[in-house]
Each structure stands twice: as C-alpha cells, then as structure tokens.
C-alpha cells in the first residue's frame, strides 16, 4: 500500500522524486505535520564551490524551508580536516585551515541564493562543525562517545566494505570520520533541537550512526532521510561533463555555460530534472516531458531558464538564452560566450590550435584536443579545421576567434 503523507514537505518531495529512504516515514510525517521541524545537511569544504551534484539536496533544503520548516547548512570546517572515505578509492588530500575557510566562503554564496537566512522563525542557519569538533578532548570523547560504536558494525557499512574488498588502504583518520559525523547530529540535536538529517543515499550508514548515537546518549527520537544518487539516462554521474565539474559559483563557471549544461539535457531526463531542479508545478513538468521530436527542446530551454534563474538570477538567465539563440540560430559569436584572453607574451610568435582548444576549456588535455580536431569535431569561426598544428598569430586576433566543439560547446579567444 502506498503511503499518502499529511505533511506538505513529504508530499512535495515524494511527488517530485526526491525520496530514496527514510528511517520512519509515518512518524516523521506526523512530526512535520504537527509543527516546525529543524533539519540539516552537511557539506565538507573540499572545493571553493559547490557543483551541480550538490544541487539536488540544496533544492531539498529549499523545499523544506518553503514548507515552513527550519534548514541548517552545516559546513564541515572540522570534518574536512579528516575527509569522508565514503565510496572513495583513495584518501582525500588534507587541507589547511585557511583553504578550508576560503572554500566555506565560496560555498556560502551559493546557499544564499536558495535559502533565506533571516533572523528567527524558520530562517536558515549556517553552522560550522569546527565549533564543537576543534575543542574535543580525545580521551573524554573516546570514553563518552567512542564506547557506543561497534567496529564490527562499522566495517559492515558498504562505504567502508567496498574499499576493504578492493584491498585499498583505509586510514584510522578516515575511519574516525563516521564517528565525527554521528557526533554532529548529536550536537545539533542538543544545541538546536535538530530532529532530521538529510543527504544522498551514500550517506545512509553515517546518518543511521548519528540516530543511534543520539538515542543512546540523549534518548531522543530523531530521523534520517536520503535522496537518490542521480545518474543521467545515459549513465553519467550527475553534474559531470566533458569540460569537468559544473560549478555553481559564477566565477568558476559562467552563467552561459551553466545554462548550456541544462539545455543539453537528454530527452529522457527532461521531466525528471524539471521536477527536481525547478519549482514548476508537477503537471507542467509532465506536460513538457511528454513533448515529442524537436518540441522537447521547449522543455529543455525552460529547464535551463528556470534552473539558471534560481542560481544566477533572471537577468543572467535571459542573457545566456539570448547568447545561445545568437550562436545557434544566427551563427553569431554572442556577447556572453566563455572567453579566453591571451596576453601578447602568451601569444609570443604564435599559438597552435591544439593549445587554444585546451586553454579555452573545450578539451581537458592536449591529447583530447588533438583527437577532437583530428576527428573533424572542431570549427574555427564556423569552418571545420582538422590541423591541430595550425598556428595563430596576432593578425588572426584582430577580431575574437570563435571555437566550436560540436554543435553545443563554444568559446571565444581574444588578445588582451
């Protein structure tokens, strides 16, 4: 029998496809229906920006707040010093405190676009687990918290087991990560009455740990909820593209490139992504997903417009759409294309096409760039060019040079 939630939040996220697992759906539903609930998602500060892979859970927090509840974005200023071993094949490089803080500053800009950090009520909270983790006394922590953890059980978690099964090293430092994450939930419950942790389904074991610890130490009833780990219909990890990670900070990925990423969604993913990444009514998402042939492009443009508006604002979304129209429909260069500006020193006596393709971000490596050119996949000013060694000198840049990889990825190169 399908469960029909009473709470707005659970009804919304189930209808839109956000729910993978929940520790006690009916009890959580009752709690959400009865009053304001506080929930958190944790983010380790391993990069200067969040990326599209984080966007699903950011939208989850946004819906949580829109439904009247209080979200916490927990920055892992403490846990980033250890590194989450979940489903990794190697140990994360350890970052220093200055780099961790710089990363947190970059990530906070994105959260402010989706959540309202107003004072009081259901205003979101931005917290940092370094607040309680940095000052822990190791012996007291082992005695008061460590005794509640079974190593046998921790070894059975899929995130750890998969690493050990491949005979890859798992350091004691990383093994402590799951204890620290569980302790986060305990502290948030004690300090802020936080009753729910949410996260991707790869965090299920860590979430259960926190629930068990909090019940043992405080005897409080708390909950866990996970979202599915998304892949695109062609099997790629969500948020990855040929050019690398799809960052959410505008200085790391232009609004045009972000818009274009969503415009390039495959037909089969349009309806699902509209439900997850926009706030359009479900009926409208279904209508757009059902379009056939070239008409499905309307759905892709609306998806790109809506997602870009949420992150970068309506003006940036409109500019990206106008640039795309100019590039694709009129064959122009567009004012907002990703642009590589070379200095006279960098240009020197000339620069090869293969170097331009790599420097502009249209290929990850020189080898990839040469392959792209050799296979006829690159155009220079809308003309196919297959000579990777073709040299460009100052006279070629009297006007910007437009590079196109296939039909959908473009860049301009100019001298500055």
UniProtKB/TrEMBL annotation:
Q: Where is this motif: 'KMSKS' region?
A: 237-241
Q: Name one Pfam family in it.
A: tRNA-synt_1b
Which reaction equation describes what this protein catalyses? Answer: tRNA(Tyr) + L-tyrosine + ATP = L-tyrosyl-tRNA(Tyr) + AMP + diphosphate + H(+)
Identify the keywords attached in UniProt to this record, alphabetized.
Aminoacyl-tRNA synthetase, ATP-binding, Cytoplasm, Ligase, Nucleotide-binding, Protein biosynthesis, RNA-binding
Q: Where are the transmembrane segments?
A: none
Report residues binding L-tyrosine: 40, 177, 181
Query: Is the Nucleotidyltransferase keyword given for this protein?
Result: no
Cellular location(s): Cytoplasm
**Which segment of this protein is annotated as the motif 'HIGH' region?**
45-54
Coiled-coil residue spans: none
Concerning Gene3D superfamilies, the annotation shows: HUPs (3.40.50.620), RNA-binding S4 domain (3.10.290.10), Tyrosyl-Transfer RNA Synthetase (1.10.240.10)
- Record: residues binding ATP: 240
Q: Which InterPro entries match?
A: aa-tRNA-synth_Ic (IPR002305), Rossmann-like_a/b/a_fold (IPR014729), S4_RNA-bd_sf (IPR036986), Tyr-tRNA-ligase (IPR002307), Tyr-tRNA-ligase_bac-type (IPR024088), Tyr-tRNA-ligase_bac_1 (IPR024107)
Name the EC number(s): 6.1.1.1
Q: Give the main localization category.
A: cytoplasm
Recorded GO terms, molecular function?
A: tyrosine-tRNA ligase activity
Which CDD domains does this UniProt record tie to the protein? Answer: S4, TyrRS_core
Instruction: Tell me the protein family, please.
Output: Belongs to the class-I aminoacyl-tRNA synthetase family. TyrS type 1 subfamily.
Q: What does this protein's UniProt record list under function? A: Catalyzes the attachment of tyrosine to tRNA(Tyr) in a two-step reaction: tyrosine is first activated by ATP to form Tyr-AMP and then transferred to the acceptor end of tRNA(Tyr).
Subunit structure, per the record?
A: Homodimer.
Q: Do you know which HAMAP family this protein is assigned to?
A: Tyr_tRNA_synth_type1
The name this protein carries in UniProt is Tyrosine--tRNA ligase
């Amino acid at each position: 029998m399908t469960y029909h939630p009473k709470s707005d939040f659970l009804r919304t996220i189930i209808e839109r496809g956000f729910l993978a697992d929940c520790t006690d759906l009916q009890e959580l539903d009752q709690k959400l229906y009865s009053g304001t609930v506080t929930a958190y998602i944790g983010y380790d500060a391993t990069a200067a920006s969040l990326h599209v892979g984080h966007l699903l859970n950011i939208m989850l927090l946004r819906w949580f707040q829109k439904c009247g509840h209080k979200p916490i974005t927990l920055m892992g200023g403490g846990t980033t010093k250890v590194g989450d071993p979940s489903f990794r094949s190697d140990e994360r490089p350890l970052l220093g405190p200055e780099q961790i803080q710089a990363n947190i500053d970059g990530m906070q800009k994105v959260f402010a676009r989706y959540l309202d950090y107003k004072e009081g009520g259901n205003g979101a909270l931005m917290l940092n687990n370094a607040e309680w983790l940095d000052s822990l006394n190791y012996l007291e922590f082992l005695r008061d918290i460590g005794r509640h953890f079974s190593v046998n059980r921790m070894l059975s978690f899929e995130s750890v087991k998969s690493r050990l099964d491949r005979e890859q090293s798992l350091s004691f430092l990383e093994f402590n990560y799951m204890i620290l994450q569980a302790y986060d939930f305990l502290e948030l419950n004690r300090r802020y009455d936080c009753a729910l942790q949410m996260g991707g389904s790869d965090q299920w074991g860590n979430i259960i740990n926190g629930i068990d610890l909090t019940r043992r130490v405080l005897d409080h009833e708390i909950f866990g909820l996970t979202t599915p780990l998304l892949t695109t219909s062609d099997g790629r990890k969500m948020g990855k593209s040929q050019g690398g990670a799809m960052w959410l900070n505008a200085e790391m990925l232009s609004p045009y490139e972000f818009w274009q990423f969503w415009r390039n969604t495959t037909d089969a993913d349009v309806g699902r992504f509209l439900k997850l990444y926009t706030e359009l009514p479900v009926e409208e998402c279904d209508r757009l997903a059902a379009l056939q042939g070239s008409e499905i492009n309307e759905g892709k443009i609306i998806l790109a417009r809506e997602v870009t508006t949420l992150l970068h604002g309506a003006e940036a979304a409109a500019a990206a759409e106008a640039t795309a129209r100019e590039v694709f429909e009129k064959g122009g260069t567009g004012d907002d294309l990703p642009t590589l500006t070379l200095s006279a020193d960098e240009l020197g006596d000339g620069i090869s096409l293969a170097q331009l393709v790599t420097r502009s971000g249209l290929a990850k490596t020189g080898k990839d760039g040469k392959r792209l050119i050799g296979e006829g996949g690159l155009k220079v000013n809308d003309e196919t060019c297959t000579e990777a060694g073709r040299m460009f000198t100052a006279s070629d840049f009297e006007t910007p040079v437009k590079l196109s990889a296939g039909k959908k990825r473009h860049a301009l190169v100019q001298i500055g």
